Amino acid sequence: MAVEVTMPQMGESVVEGTIAKWLVKEGDQVAEDEPLCEISTDKVDTEIPSPVSGVIAKIVAAEGETLPVGAVLAMIEEGGAAMTAKPAPEKPEAARPVAAEAPRPKLEAVRKPEAKEARAPVEEPEAPTAERPVRVAPLARPSALGEHRRYSPVVLKMAAEHGVDLSRVPGTGIGGRVSKRDVLKYLESLGQAEVRPPPSARPQAAAALRPAPSAAPAPSAIPSVFHPPIYEPREGDVVEPFTRRRKLIAEHMVYSKTHSPHVGTVAEVDVTRALALRQAHKAEFERREGFALTLLPLVAAATVRGLKEFPRMNASVANDALVIRKQINLGIAVDTEEGLLVPVIKAAEGMSVVGLARELERLRRKVEEKTITADDLAGGSFTLSNPGREGNLFGLAIINQPQVGILRMGEIKKRPVVVEADGSDAIVIRSMMYLALSYDHRVIDGVLGNRFLYRVARIIEEADFEL
């Protein structure tokens, strides 16, 4: 009996994965739970175990191929007895060309539709090749393809160089994503259309070049004057190619900035009392819990309280709607060697300061030991960023989509400030920190954003926490 090995769901926000490396080959005997391949996602890298014991009958996905969740990666003949006898009765003349020449006919099948632009590549989802690394699967929400399209840095660079309006380029990737090949095809069709428009021969290209009746004139209709210079590496330069994670981080950041009108507001916070509270309980806490108490759990607790009082800040944008979430899943931005990760404290609304500190320590260790999972990184509803002791005065972070806000801590510095004491003003030395809030102005108005930040700052200053 043949068993399919499919791309698993590795977290609610993970929709695809890339085959980084196969650990087995066709014909290998494998045991149940034995690692078959390494999968790389935008969240984490992991191994896919074998669902059964048997023989690898067929490897469907190639290394480097990006596939959606549920796509078939390989076929396993359960038990393996049938596989050992299978090659004998096969005709050598038929077996040899199939093994050696299989990729070539598939490549030709992929190239055919490119010659006829009227036929979309999605009509042949069962022909994964090196030229088309993404297997096409039915999309859950096709209506969103035109509304929220994501572009890679390479595609954005090509569009800027050639003055292309990417909203007019038909995307053939997952979720309607526009690839480099899509841009090249569009430029080719555009060049031919300028010489002699052939609407009958190229119906899809002609339709793509025509603006929608209700749409405003596209900015790219005017030839682009600015072309960013391309730097050519010189001797002594070090070139670091983007890793998959870095590419996805870059794409996420560009998407967030182009889709969410970011507004930033900053609050000055006196953390003197909070630091004094931490110092008073530091030794006892470390003996009891086994790890050091930092300021981060206190700020996290204040943030959770603020989100309870202003639930609209604990929301996600879903197409043309705002979903105000009941559960507070607080993401904590963590810097790693391979890029930023945001582990999520689930159901933080029910946790004390000590509970938050324990969960922060657990997630920190998992990141350090590289055992963090996609589920640990998924489902965040609001993000808190702590750059550490060298965080500088303040910084405005980019919103982690589809959330509507992110709070960033600044560096703590002692400085003289004016306070009121016994009815008169006095200059004293206090420990001060800036909190910077970035929020999505599509759904969060300035009054709400400022009130939320003010409340979080006052909770920290009052230091009304139980340790």
Tally the helices: 12
Low-confidence stretches are 82-148, 192-221
C-alpha end-to-end distance: 58 Å
User: Rounded to an integer, what's the Rg over CA atoms?
Assistant: 27 Å
Largest sheet: 8 strands, mixed
Give the structural class: alpha+beta
The percent of residues in helical segments reads 25-40%
How much of the sequence lies in strands comes to 15-25%
User: What is the H-and-E element order?
Assistant: EEEEEEEEHHHHHHHEHHEEEEEHHEEEEH
Tell me the number of strands: 18
Global outline: globular
- Taking all residues together, what is the mean pLDDT? 78
Describe this entry's structure for a reader:
The chain is α+β, with helices and mostly antiparallel strands. Helices cover 31% and strands 22% of the residues. The protein has 12 helices and 18 strands. The protein has helices at 81-85, 92-101, 103-115, 153-162, 180-195, 203-209, 244-259, 272-289, 296-309, 353-368, 374-377, 446-462; strands at 2-6, 16-22, 29-30, 35-40, 45-49, 54-59, 66-68, 72-78, 262-270, 315-318, 321-324, 330-336, 339-341, 344-345, 382-385, 405-409, 413-421, 424-440. The strands form 4 sheets. Strands 9, 12, 13, 14, 15, 16, 17 and 18 form an 8-stranded mixed beta sheet that branches. Strand 10 and strand 11 form a beta hairpin. The longest helix has 18 residues, at 272-289. Mean pLDDT is 78; it is low at 82-148 and 192-221.
Summarize the structure.
This protein has helices spanning 81-85, 92-101, 103-115, 153-162, 180-195, 203-209, 244-259, 272-289, 296-309, 353-368, 374-377, 446-462; strands at 2-6, 16-22, 29-30, 35-40, 45-49, 54-59, 66-68, 72-78, 262-270, 315-318, 321-324, 330-336, 339-341, 344-345, 382-385, 405-409, 413-421, 424-440. It is an alpha+beta fold. The strands form 4 sheets. Strands 9, 12, 13, 14, 15, 16, 17 and 18 form an 8-stranded mixed β-sheet that branches. A 4-stranded antiparallel β-sheet has the order 1-8-6-3.
